[in-house]
């Protein structure tokens, strides 16, 4: 039933019906209620824009987050970018919270079965990710934030984590550093594997042996940076330079260095990956912090765009992007001090 | 295929099918999975409004965020708590992004008209908030995170911002401080007004005059804390103590103090409001930071609970809570140094 037929059946103008259904206050409450009731009764679906009516779309994109750690500063930035793009089409983000991988998988089933979203965004992929096969079998369109080795024809956007850490490691090698520590994410996550590869590649290119004692893994918190850095400083042969995976872990590392009576950018060089949080900037730290920079908010906006393109029929294989990461040299990286 | 045909094919009642598809816990897991599997196999796709017809609920709670600043660290923590509570009922969070107050208001109209959410959470209220009247007129149930002076019968949860800053100010006064600066949010926001009142009340109680030059306002970023603190330090009569509105602004203030060659907890006392971000803790700063503490994640969880209670028929006037805020004294606050 289209708007005209529905309005005729109610003996109301199309304008009144459509105003009532989009919530304009000019329509009397009683009329609005009559229209809403009739819409449900006749199966007339007012639940999205005219576009949604025409295409069978519900006007929401899903994202599933683990309740513990996944509601963090990266997520809010990413969602800010995503929401900013989707709002232009009056599309909402449906956030489902889960507490395990099992409940994540059953949530995708629920979202697909109840036709609650038009597509989902899959994030933090693993090397071999069971979610890919599930989403494909459910026929639920999706874009991956990150990359995976899993089979399947799907679109994704990732930053060049390999290139980022290869660049930062090479920059430190250029400055004469040979004992370079890496604060990385957990093994198994693709981004952490790519960063590890970039680090090892840069070291190998210069013939520098990899020392596992200089590689730490964890969630990117201030405390993680602090504790791992304190551990590095206790080594017999301490690092002269450190690569931090995020601004948060960099803050902790800076503090550990300061407490040890050393100066960042003099005694120890520090470079961090900067996701461009608006509330904490490498330009304002002391010393200003050298970084590899890529805005996670911009990635969110672009992924919103890619989801829209996917829903408009762009083939998934045309929706794959690796974003280069910019090296920004500031004052926290300097030539190694002679022993 | 409609609900009746689908239920017949499964030899189940329509009620069981529709309860299973809307995630009610009364349905056995095995039955639910059988129904979900069959729904996919037969292409039966109940849309959310069909589910709404059966159960009267769509299973989503709305939250509207401004695209610029409202996707920040406070929001992700709050949503982590909210989502953690709602997931137990398989209820999702629908996030709508807007770019102005006007589009925020029209979004509530759209959400109500399309019956896309069962309730919304209104946050960051103003003293006199036009959203309250609109939500009431739309008949859209809501809980406010914060408080407002607006008329209307609604539930809310707020922390005791007045008591928090009254406590922190009194603590500094007890230590002999008389020049106490306040890094506050923007005027007009209720939480910032309450904090201002707490500050002024504590000073008045001791007969200390209020100096407007010691009160700064802005978004709680690292940069805001840094810039305002630098300004305070340039005053002819600089403050001997500072109250920061968040961990982010405290980080900036600490840096400004350090650059000026002074020590937090010796030359200047600092106390911050701590929303308990898991990735940056006052216990790990140097010196450890005295705080007033209240977990915004816990508030999100409780508001999720309150929304569920509201939808189950608890009167809104029984859903009002002010949470006390705990003063935690660490090493960043100390007796004022003799001039």
TrEMBL record, chains A, B:
Keyword Mitochondrion in record: no
SMART domains on file: HTH_LACI
Keyword annotations from UniProtKB, A to Z: DNA-binding, Transcription, Transcription regulation
Listed GO MF terms: DNA-binding transcription factor activity; transcription cis-regulatory region binding
Record-annotated HTH lacI-type domain positions: 1-55
Signal peptide: none
Pfam families per the UniProt record, alphabetical: LacI, Peripla_BP_3
Protein name: Transcriptional regulator
